[in-house]
Design brief:
Elements (H helix, E strand, L loop, with lengths): L17 H8 L14 H24 L5 H27 L19 H23 L5 H24 L19 H8 L6 H8 L2
Helix pairs in contact: 2-3, 2-4, 3-5, 4-5
Length: 209
């Protein structure tokens, strides 16, 4: 199993503003297209890239000391979950004979300026993660991998609901997104997270056919 992303992800890009980043993440999304993935390893490397991003986000956010009490407890556990996802997806790619993509260099701009900005960015990340897994699920050929991905999908949705509740959001459309989740296309997910990547083109090239 791989180490946690505390030792894997690094970066500094001070020109990324929180406003730009949050605006990008809030764009609308479409269904994935058939050309997005050629194999299960392609899907897993895509998932791994997003898990790297999330795990490092929580590592930095929890280190910033913005939360107390129950909020701190929840976000610490969410961070541990995301680090576990990194290790699990990495190990799965290796067992399939593939090569895991490297962790991207990242910077989260002003996401850690306050409690609210941290929780708000977390809520958006988790919901986009849910959509990303759902958008890619139809391209997974191995049923065991599909089942494992569904397990992560469910955890990401629960994370989003917990953070939505901490933010005091309304039930439908806030704590949860409605009767059905919306799949998100790979290219749209990558565009959404680009503001947090030091070298977006390099990341896209690593996981794009």
């Amino acid at each position: 199993m791989a180490d946690t992303t505390a030792d894997l992800v690094h970066g500094n890009a001070s020109d990324v503003s929180a406003g730009v980043a949050l605006g990008a993440l809030n764009h609308g999304f479409l269904l994935a297209s058939a050309k997005d993935f050629n194999s299960d390893i392609d899907v897993l490397n895509y998932a791994l890239t997003l898990e790297y991003l999330e795990a490092e986000f929580y590592r930095q956010g929890n280190k910033a000391g913005l939360l107390k009490g129950t909020e701190k407890q929840y976000l610490m556990q969410i961070g541990a979950d995301e680090a576990s996802h990194v290790a699990t997806v990495t190990a799965t790619i290796q067992k399939l004979g593939g090569t895991p993509v490297g962790a991207p260099a990242v910077d989260f701009g002003g996401a850690f300026d306050s409690r609210k900005s941290y929780l708000t960015t977390s809520h958006i990340f988790e919901n986009k993660g849910v959509g990303a897994y759902l958008g890619a699920a139809g391209f997974i050929k191995n049923k065991m991998i599909l089942q494992a991905a569904a397990g992560i999908f469910g955890v990401e949705a629960r994370h989003a609901a917990v953070v939505g509740n901490l933010l005091g959001l309304k039930a439908e459309g806030g704590v949860y997104m409605g009767a059905f989740e919306t799949p998100i296309a790979k290219n749209d997910v990558l565009k959404a997270v680009a503001p947090f990547l030091v070298d977006p083109a390099k990341v896209v090239a690593a996981i794009t056919l």
